[in-house]
Protein 1
Amino acid sequence: MKIYLPVFSYSASCKTFDLNTEHNPGIGGTQHVTVLLASRLARAKPQWNIYLVNYSPINILNASQNLKQVSFASLEHFCQFLSSPAETGSRAIITALLLETCKLAELKLISNRVFCWLHHPFHFKHKLRKADFLAYINQGSYQHSSNCRFYPRCIVIQNIFSPANKANIESSIETRQDFSLRLVHLGALVPDKGLLHIAKQWKRIKKLYPNAQLNIIGSALTYNSWNDVHQLVPANPSYANQILKYIPESDIAEGRCKFHGNLGLEKDKIIESSHLALQNPTGIRESFGAATFECMALGTPVIASGDYGMHEAMQYFPELTIQRTSQLAGIIREACSDTNRYKELQCRSLAVAKLFSLNSEAATWKWIRVLQTEKREITADSIIYPGFNSSTLKAITKLHYRRVNGVLRTSIKSATKYCLRKTR
């Protein structure tokens, strides 16, 4: 059996993947997980041929013999190849963001050979639904609950997650106000990841902890962006200027706020030495929150939203979950108010990361089972509504409201595009 996993990432071609450690070399989480899934499938099924598809070969170390690579100039060229009679028995796992770039007619030619890997909650695209792929894959329970009424054969399979080397949790907090609190944020510097919301609370955090330091790992270049980035903040200049309204340039010059850009293995030392990680404070568009698990795996407790896909990780940390971004400074103070509680949070972080790491093996075999199933026999997974920290009824009502609102917006967009085409 031949399985294709398109990456189509220029940034991935510039990195080296060691499949023994499975560590993220400094690219987007989706691209990294695609490589990990290809490796796991190749190891679990040595009789299969697994192909990573990219513009150019990716530098991979310690790969299985049946993990191969093919290059195409574009996804369109790959789709033409996949639709050929010679590939009748082949299967491909392609992210929704890549599939969205193709025309519906092209998608229908390959629909019975493709699993659509949905990218975020409420990922409503009429074109993807009309293509009628083999199945539509979600990474978490919230994402699945949000998408399953829109797409047929909706399935939830956890993302492959591999923790870093054994964490060192010798770091401890001090309850005095002049304590040198070290904070970290890990993620691409794009609006959806929420650094601007964290920046807006930086003044309040400094008021509580005058010696606090914030390390920011990531840049706009994480996601194939070759546009110019700001000199001080490695993000789109307009977004960087918004951040600089709340993080003074003097704090950057003095090293109180450090922008490290994209890092590979070297980021572990920064995360491990940090007392707390500040991740997506709204959760919007998150399906799994891989960066959150990376921090937890190094024993660094995470403060973040428990909404959208962030629910997967933060359901185990109600005391660190924020409902509003204005709560950020207060939750930092609470987390650092007791040394024993902080040590408990460190150990719980390691345990949760290990849980998801162990479940990755089950996820691999669920992929294998689904890949071998005929389309007519694929059935949707049951819906498990996330409970959050409010009543189940309130959570379900909120989810249904967002779903209806999302479907309405995407329908209006589709109708507008159709009318514009007709008037040309």
Note: The CA atoms of residues 38 and 406 lie 32 Å apart.
Protein 2
Amino acid sequence: MSERQVFRSASVLALLAALFVFAAPLSAYAGASPSSDADFKPFKSGNDVYAQLDVDYADFFYGELKDPQENPTMELNAQDPAAALRAEGYYDAVSSATVGKAAKWEQVKSDTSSGKTVATGIRKVTVRIPESLYNSAKAAQAGNAQCSNELLNIVGSLPEIATSSTIPVPDEYKTLNGDGSLTKMKTDTETVEAKAAEIVTGKRFGNYTLELNLENAPKSADIMGAILETEDGAKYGMKPMDNIFLRSDEMAFSVRSYTEPHGNTPGYQRFQDMQGKTIRRITYLLKGKKDVVIDTKLKVKTLLDDSSKITAKDNVYGKESSDVSLSFSVPSDSSYQLKSVSFKQKELAKDADYSYDSASKLLKVKTNANTGIGLYTLVFTDEKYEDIKVEFRLSSGHPDGSVRFSGNTLQLPYGITTAAYIGNISAVKVSKLDAAGKVVAGSELSFSDPKLTLGKIFFDENGKLKLDAVVPGRHNTKTVAFPDDGNYQIEITSDGYPSVKASVSKPEKANNGGSGSGSGGSGGSGGGSGRRSGRSGGGSVTTNTAGSFKEWVQDAKGWWVRLNNGSWPASVWQRYSWNGGQYWYYFGADGYVMSGWQWINGKCYYLEPTAGKNFGHMYENTTTPDGYTVNANGEWTVNGAVQTK
């Protein structure tokens, strides 16, 4: 028996238990109730009996979906009308991994004793029972008659009913029929207008999300459920916590198996035939208030198979603009159009921030204050098929490996600021290391919630790792990232920038897991030039300002320069002093000084390869140790002609 079936059965037992104590005050069998119902007791009025019962979802929604006529004639041989609705994925129990929100759904019968929420139906539904049906059922029970539905179980469990009451007949109730079914709720309705109702695909809690944008959305405490009605007359029930959320003007449903972020798998079977239909009406079923009706015209677009997609090619964020090429693999009868472009969850303005040529399938992102390095999201829409969300990144262009740690502090290459790198951090993984430097099994902690500013949680403004970092989670939980002293492996993902994986320590150890510090610029005294560089003929021209140089550093891979802002030069020529002279050095893409013969931007240079002899400095206007000539710009020449490649 499935979990859903188990809790459906439990719901039926709860219903019967409630009926067994029919003459007792409601609070004795139905738990807490709204103040308006606090004094409600079962009573007889005229030719009817009224009671409040806990009703499981299948029985509750049967009346709302099928709208059966009232039938006081006892039908012992009639099969259970709601049997099909009890199947998994239809109107069975709702199981949720969360428990904190259950109490806010006051009309929902739920249990959280297992550490999760299991909702089985609706609490304290007012039910009218015709006296003639009640008497017939009582007589049948006395004669030990057999019954194919729940009628005798319900009526037969009732004690004698009080014949007088001061409570007026309720305005809102369902009626029990002779086949054991309940009718549609007798209640009043009001029609309201949704400001900007739409149905979207690709969101977190289902294949489809209804966004109604109501000015005064119903409160969760009043909601028993909702009904979607399509243009062909079909109706579909929406259950609290399964399809309706605390922000009640947003609902979600799925037409195929789907796992949402909390790990829940909402029932989808009852919605499977909705693709291609149009929702014309949405009705909120409210306890003690008028039901709210919203007229709509929302197309349930057809979902795509896994082979259908649109992809965008990542690129480098350009000086004036960045071109992003797109490729389409979509149904031949589709006509997808670009609906929106977003950067860091903010929608960009067409023409001002980007342009798109549908013929060439080329997106051009303009370089301005609204755009930048990082993750972009495109949404394409079609009349028939679901929306397609496309992600791409515009990067800084720095190669992998160019971001490092020195001790517990980020070391960034030239051109990446600490604020920018930290601001784009989207994922952090922390693992404990054993004495051998291997990851301890089961110690991994991964953080990637887009709602969190992970960069600020893990680093200070100078790029130093916060060893006391605490990451907030759902339901007010908090996770200590580095709980114990020792060594850890940390992996950082920063959108648009190189990722980094390194070992760090708590407490911090000098030079742990990163570059060792040094001084003296390849064996001499280090220092940055304070005048404009005059380099020409290859590589980019960089102007060092006084004080930008901090120190030369040597580690297992070689020599590099740490600047005052914590970054280092990469893919660039730099001029530094050594033993009273000024020399050119070329720093590779990984930030290390290059040596020997090197082709750089199409020209060849000789860079000192010997340690202890001003390692890496460029030879100028001389003959190299192996007999070749270089000019005043360091370029290899033959008979005065610069050699190119």
Note: Residues 1-37, 510-547 have pLDDT under 50 and may be disordered.
